[in-house]
Amino acid sequence: MSLNWTVSARAREMNASAIREILKITERPDIISFAGGLPAPELFPIEALRKACEKVLSTYGPKSQQYSLTMGVLPLREILADRLSKKGLPVTIDNLFITGGSQQGLDLIAKVFLNEGDALLCENPTYLGAIQAFNIMRPKYVTVEMDEQGMIVDQAEEKIKEHNPRFIYVVADFQNPSGITMSLKRRKQLVKLADKYQIPIVDDNPYGELRYVGEHVPSLQSLGKDLVIELGTFSKLVSPGLRIGWGIVSTEITNMFERLKQGADLHTNTFTQYVVYEYIKAGNLDSHIEEIKASYSERRGVMVEALKEHFPEGVRWYEPEGGLFLWVELPEGISATDLLPAAVEQKVAYVPGKPFFPYEDKDNTLRLNFSNAKPDEIREGIKRLGKVFRESVRTLSDKKKDAGQKVT
Ligand SMILES: Cc1ncc(COP(=O)(O)O)c(C=O)c1O
To answer: Across the chain, how many H-helices and E-strands are there?
Structure first.
């Protein structure tokens, strides 16, 4: 029976996420996937989490199964505030808000700051999941180009004056999708602008602790304090299935987050919050981060070497200093979207860059994830991709030659 219900315009407008659609294909076991942003499953700390679960049930019993505070359970906020403070962030339990992953943080940000049609300023490209979260408010995206130092902040001031954005959204560390890290100079510049025009900066920071080379850059939050809302998550540090993230926010915003989150889900899963607390308390977190860093660093290196060996001339890429992603630019005129079926035929997948641009269609770009596949699979997958790209570059240059011959 088909139902003939009238749904809201908003619901109708929500396009299926390109990434979700592609992930469906890449779930096939015979495909080497560089598509999702998935951590390595074999590195999930299953044993330590099992112990934490047992500890929670024996220590907290029914309390771990009860409704709890919208802001998050106290022990988790305390241990997290302590950890973040030791890393130089001025955090207390009163401005630490537990979310159902940082994706929920993005949803709350949209609802707190945006009326329908309001503008927000962001990097170009930007995180696709943020676009999805913000789209519910039908915002106008005021995009600022990036170079190897991140958002070109010099270009932002004119746009702020013209469009009056409600907030500035950035992924300053190892951006998803580009892998680029904003330089200290640009961070200072951005904080200055946020202060001058009194616009909050939202720094979405799932990858900051996953640096493999180079020097740590002070976070926007540490530079801008109350001007900056920082979102964090355990998704990439422990596992995404936990669905535990956090926001560092000033007290007024905390109150608004609280009311909005109550309407959405009352609070984040009580049991899981206690599990994460016990996991950290037992001293597991830092050693686990070291372990995944060593592994992801190796995989990043393997991917970079394989790209050098197999990708044809004219294909460029950005080598990230951390995070999970590597950004690739094909020669102008080659569409990464159109090439995806050929790649899937070779049993390898990536995400085309196009959906990460709110407006412009830079369809000659793509994102490769290097955390999920094992080193041997990375070598093989990049070799297969190299073949697809070489053929496409050759076809393009043949076409150009033909066109040139006709013109002359
Ligand atoms: C920049 C960015 N923000 C937010 C998220 C969502 O993370 P979470 O699993 O904490 O909701 C991701 C996930 O890939 C991300 O890359």
So the answer is: 14, 14
Question: How far, in Å, from the CA of 105 to the mean position of ligand 1?
Answer: 10
Structure tokens at 316: 């460029």
User: Could you write out the three-class secondary structure of 248-278?
Assistant: ECCHHHHHHHHHHHHHHHCCCCHHHHHHHHH
Residue nearest to ligand 1 atom 13, measured at CA = 37
> Phi and psi of 147, rounded to 5°?
-130, -160
d(CA 380, CA 368): 14
CA 407–ligand 1 middle distance (angstroms): 49
pLDDT in tens, 210-221: 999 999 999 999
Round to whole Å and give the CA distance between 247 and 250: 10
pLDDT tens, residue by residue, 84-110 = 999 888 799 999 999 999 999 999 999
Residue closest by Cα to atom 14 of ligand 1:
37
pTM above 0.90, yes or no: yes
Q: Which residue has the higher pLDDT, 13 or 306?
A: 306
Q: How far apart, in whole angstroms, are the C-alpha atoms of residue 364 and residue 285?
A: 39
Count CB neighbours of 155 within 10 A.
11
> Which of 314, 310, 323, 398 has the alpha carbon at shortest distance from 367?
323
**What domains are there in the chain, each with its CATH number?**
17-37+286-397 (3.90.1150.10), 46-282 (3.40.640.10)
Residue bearing the CA closest to ligand 1, atom 6: 103
Report the pocket of ligand 1 as residue ranges, CB < 6 Å: 37, 101-103, 127, 129, 171, 176, 204, 206, 233, 235, 240, 245
Whole-number Å distance, alpha carbon 397 to ligand 1 midpoint, is 38
Please count the residues of the chain.
408
Q: Which 3 state secondary structure label does DSSP give 405?
A: helix
